């Protein structure tokens, strides 16, 4: 989990979650038979017409798939919160032990160390005002007046100072934390990518071609690619949102372009013109890029990459993605939203150190 910094007033501590794995246990004949009977179950009949469960499920397929995504996202959120609780509790246990060690070393009571810490982390009104002005600048002025947030701001600053104090003590005593955050198994086989295969840092981006926030990240990621060169590999994964009517077919179109070696060209062209992502517009874009239009059109109309895009979405849901853009760096750091270059660079630099 990322530690707090003094740059942001509110922290979104996100972690990465595990993917489901096949158990390797085959279904029994009786189980398969029962499932088939369930599918053939008649759920409605009238005037000689029969509707089976399999017909009903097929008709409701899109809605059921969205429900499945929501279920995965809820499970991912549960595991995020579970890990946060365990990590916070572990740090609290370690800090209490460190206080006992410090007290013993100084020949005082643990309560005396606590009083010393409380005194050292006190925030003056001048420091508080300075922090408020910094936060006001970072937010573009979109925060309440100082008097309304003064108490919460003081608590936040003191909490950060306390954590920094204990962080230094944990380093002093050589504390090693082996609590591992859950990590998803995200399949990137065949996914479009920029950068060398053996790059020390891999950024997996979950994106939506109709999302305006994803568009903001296009130039930022190009800058990352240009500045880090062989140190970073950027992998594109699809997560078209249901609120964007053309996002799914645009995702399919990008993979059809990928077949002809022009994923990134199509990627850029679609983000440049997000308002025109209909089937005809996508075919027109492919032609303008010099793609084989017949081959592209056949690929798009066949639905060849429909399941591929759905698998990407399932991967994202298992990893806790609920909106776009979202980034997973080295299966370790989860970043949600259209962040700036500095935020991504900070995560990359940290991954390179590790």
What does this protein look like?
Among the domains are: 85 residues, no CATH class; 161 residues, 3-Layer(aba) Sandwich (Glutaredoxin). It is built from 13 helices and seven strands. It has a five-stranded mixed sheet with strand order 3-5-4-6-7. The chain has a two-stranded antiparallel ribbon with strand order 1-2. The chain is 57% helix and 9% strand. The longest helix is centred in the first third of the chain and has 46 residues.
Explain briefly what this protein structure is.
With 354 residues, the protein is of the alpha+beta class. Among the domains are: 88-172, no CATH class; 193-353, 3-Layer(aba) Sandwich (Glutaredoxin), CATH 3.40.30.10.
Characteristic terms for this protein:
354 residues; 7 strands; two-stranded antiparallel ribbon; five-stranded mixed beta sheet; Glutaredoxin; globular; alpha+beta
Topology:
Blueprint: H1 29-39, E1 42-46, E2 49-52, H2 53-59, H3 61-106, H4 110-120, H5 125-138, H6 146-172, E3 193-194, E4 201-207, H7 212-228, E5 232-238, H8 247-259, H9 263-272, H10 279-288, H11 293-302, H12 306-318, E6 326-329, E7 333-336, H13 341-353
Parallel strand pairs: 4-5
Antiparallel strand pairs: 1-2, 3-5, 4-6, 6-7
Helix pairs in contact: 3-4, 3-12, 5-6, 8-9, 8-10, 10-11
Strands, total number:
7
β-strand amount: 5-15%
- The level-1 CATH class of the domain at 193-353: Alpha Beta
N→C terminal distance: 14 Å
In CATH, the architecture of the domain at 193-353 is 3-Layer(aba) Sandwich
- Based on CA inertia axes, which overall geometry fits? globular
Structural class: alpha+beta
> If helices are DSSP runs of H or I spanning 4 or more residues, what is the number of helices?
13
Mean pLDDT score, rounded?
87
Largest sheet features: 5 strands, mixed
Radius of gyration: 26 Å
Order of helices and strands: HEEHHHHHEEHEHHHHHEEH
């Amino acid at each position: 989990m990322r530690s707090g910094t003094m740059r942001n007033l509110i922290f979104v501590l996100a972690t990465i979650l595990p993917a489901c794995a096949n158990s390797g246990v085959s279904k029994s004949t009786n189980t398969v038979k029962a499932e088939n009977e369930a599918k053939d179950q008649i759920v409605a009949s009238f005037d000689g017409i029969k509707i089976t469960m399999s017909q009903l499920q097929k008709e409701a397929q899109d809605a059921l798939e969205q429900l499945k995504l929501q279920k995965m996202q809820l499970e991912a959120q549960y595991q995020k919160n579970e890990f946060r609780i365990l990590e916070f509790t572990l740090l609290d246990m370690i800090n209490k032990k460190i206080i006992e060690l410090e007290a013993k070393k100084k020949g005082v009571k643990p309560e005396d160390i606590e009083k010393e810490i409380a005194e050292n982390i006190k925030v003056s009104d001048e420091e508080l005002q300075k922090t408020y002005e910094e936060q006001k600048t970072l937010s573009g002025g979109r925060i309440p007046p100082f008097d309304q947030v003064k108490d919460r701001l003081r608590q936040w600053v003191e909490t950060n100072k306390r954590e920094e104090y204990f962080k230094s003590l944990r380093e002093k005593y050589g504390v090693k934390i082996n609590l591992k955050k859950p990590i998803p198994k995200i399949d990137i086989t065949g996914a479009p990518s920029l950068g060398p295969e053996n790059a020390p840092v891999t950024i997996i981006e979950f994106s939506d071609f109709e999302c305006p926030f994803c568009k903001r990240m296009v130039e930022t990621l190009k800058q990352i690619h240009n500045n880090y060169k062989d140190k970073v590999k950027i992998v594109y994964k699809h997560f078209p949102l249901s609120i964007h009517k053309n996002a799914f077919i645009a995702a399919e179109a990008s993979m059809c372009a990928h077949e002809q070696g022009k994923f990134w060209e199509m990627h850029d062209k679609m983000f440049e013109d997000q308002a025109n992502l209909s089937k005809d517009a996508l075919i027109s874009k492919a032609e303008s890029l010099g793609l084989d239009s017949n081959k592209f059109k056949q690929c798009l109309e066949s639905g060849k990459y429909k399941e591929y895009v759905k698998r990407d979405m399932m991967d994202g849901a298992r990893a806790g993605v609920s909106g776009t853009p979202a980034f997973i760096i080295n299966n370790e750091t989860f970043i949600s939203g259209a962040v700036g270059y500095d935020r991504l660079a900070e995560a990359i630099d940290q991954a390179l150190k590790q």
